[in-house]
Fold this protein.
Amino acid sequence: MKRKNNLFEKIVDFDNLRLADSRARKGKSNQYGVRMFDKNPEGNLMILQELFINGRYKTSEYSTFKVYEPKERIVYRLPYFPDRIAHHAIMNIMEPLFQSWFTKDTYSSIKGKGIKAASDAVKESLKNKEETAYCLQIDIVKFFPSINHDILKNMLRKKIKDRQLLDLLDEIIDSSPGVPIGNYLSQYFANFYLTYFDHWIKENMKVKHYFRYADDIVIFGKNSTDLHRLRFEISNYLQNELKLSIKPNYQVFKICKRRGLDFVGYVFFHTHVKLRKSIKKNYAKAVKNKKPKSTIAAYEGWAKHANTNHLRKKLALT
């Protein structure tokens, strides 16, 4: 595949910077950083354009905060100007390319994909009971912090020829250890880091039933022996090619009446789908405590794609 060139000039085009501003501010117009930027929007975009063109753009200092759901992790945050606009300017041009490089089997943080698409794909595979009798489920140890900068940069160089863009991406990559959760670019860097692995799984290992949501990986197979063997091959690939390790709590198990696959908020069986127990509890608690309609609607969105008619009727009466 021919490497992409002449991308940087599209990123620094002033119309693209305006578009980046409009997309970066969605739902954030009242934030302090946006209000400060709006005191001189055209002038600020000209400054960003000049920083890009002269190779003087430097990532600002990160602030961090902790989140505890679905698990505890540190989230990184950058100022609206210049950084969040800068990331959107890059992604306006790069997003279609990233999506063209991904396989159809990855679902996290990709437009038109997400939890619903992952859930639908898993349900479709489970219709073939023979080929999905067993499941291999693995997770990667500290995935985002463990992403190796040199490997990521080399992977980008296999796809991109544009020197100015590569220098800009290098600066952003090197702005923190690993890949910081919270950056707009990070979710694409993370997916891209595993893209060659995705292709290896599908094209070299010929795996039919494969699903990846960030670093949560699910593979169905006819028997446990083949899945254990595949797990060994995956572990070697991740270690040798990407310097990543599988968590020791990986699982190979039979899909049966007593045990389903817990993935993307649902528990999947061959005959039905349940809502994950923790989400069901939080849904009931939100209804009981009369949380905002938007919160209730979010849980209803989860619930309607599982076999939850009884639960939803019960909660509607509370």
About this structure: Residues 80-101 form the longest helix (22 residues).
